Amino acid sequence: MKELKNIDILIAGEQHVKYIDDINDAIDIASKQRGTGIARRTFEYLQEKIVAGKAIIALEKDVFAGFCYIEAWQEKGFVANSGLIVVDEYRGIGLAKEIKRKAFQLSRTRYPKSKIFGLTTGLAVMKINHELGYRPVTFSELTVDDQFWAGCKGCVNYDILERTGRSKCLCTGMLYNPEWEKPNFKSKNGIKKRSLFEFVSKLKPGAGSIKNKIVKKINNVTAAGKFQTGSYRLFGLK
């Protein structure tokens, strides 16, 4: 059993370029397992992020465990935390949460006035984003930078995004705006907390939607008397 305490979560540097093939292999495996699209990146693209110190990498000694990178768009008005991946054998110990938190902190440090956003189909990532202060939003509230959306071309679901004029896809758009921080509602991290139910209520409706899946899971757990507010067990993260 892997333990989080044995894993180093670092801001990536040039010495980590050697892990790029491992990163892309992990992305390919995850995409096939989930049955949804995760866009593979070129070696050169990831190398640029790593060398520039715009990526987070998780290692157990010299073994690759997880990764995420950040990218500024639209004249640095928006920052994306993208490519979050955890190797299969390191899942279920809270590593994804810690990588995402580190990437969020790096984004806030490098781009303190920028909005931070992401696209995801994963319930686990949505839960982590919610804890960090993200809200679900329509795609129209995200960056209009064509280069960002071009990055979705490596996803198997890109045709949906293209057919809808970039208005919707299988992913849910999530956004953190630093202007949402208000002194009267700050948590210990300075981020306004919202209930999980408020978060769920703003997701896309419809049969088979992410929203319905979350609500069904909440209802099942609540009926069993096992619901714990703020518990990551609800989404299978721990």
What can you see in these coordinates?
By secondary structure, this protein is of the alpha+beta class. The radius of gyration is 17 Å and the shape is globular. It is built from 8 helices and 7 strands, in the order βααβββαβαβααβαα. The chain has one domain (4-235): Aminopeptidase (3-Layer(aba) Sandwich). Helices cover 34% and strands 18% of the residues.
Would you spell out the secondary-structure blueprint of this structure?
Elements: E1 8-11, H1 20-34, H2 43-51, E2 55-60, E3 63-73, E4 78-86, H3 95-110, E5 115-120, H4 123-132, E6 135-137, H5 146-150, H6 158-163, E7 172-176, H7 196-201, H8 210-223
Parallel strand pairs: 4-5
Antiparallel strand pairs: 1-2, 2-3, 3-4, 5-7, 6-7
Helix pairs in contact: 3-4
Features:
disordered C terminus; Aminopeptidase; 238 residues; GNAT family N-acetyltransferase; Acyl_CoA_acyltransferase; single chain; 7-stranded mixed beta sheet; alpha+beta
Concise account of the structure shown:
The protein contains 8 helices and 7 strands, in the order βααβββαβαβααβαα.
- The CATH architecture designation is 3-Layer(aba) Sandwich
Report the structural category.
alpha+beta
Beta strand count: 7
Top CATH class: Alpha Beta
The fraction of residues assigned to DSSP E strands is: 15-25%
Shape: globular
CATH superfamily: Gcn5-related N-acetyltransferase (GNAT)
Helical content (DSSP H or I, runs of 4+): 25-40%
Average pLDDT figure: 82
| Sheet with the most strands, sense and barrel status | 7 strands, mixed
From the alpha carbons, calculate the radius of gyration and give it in angstroms: 17 Å
Order of helices and strands: EHHEEEHEHEHHEHH
CATH topology: Aminopeptidase
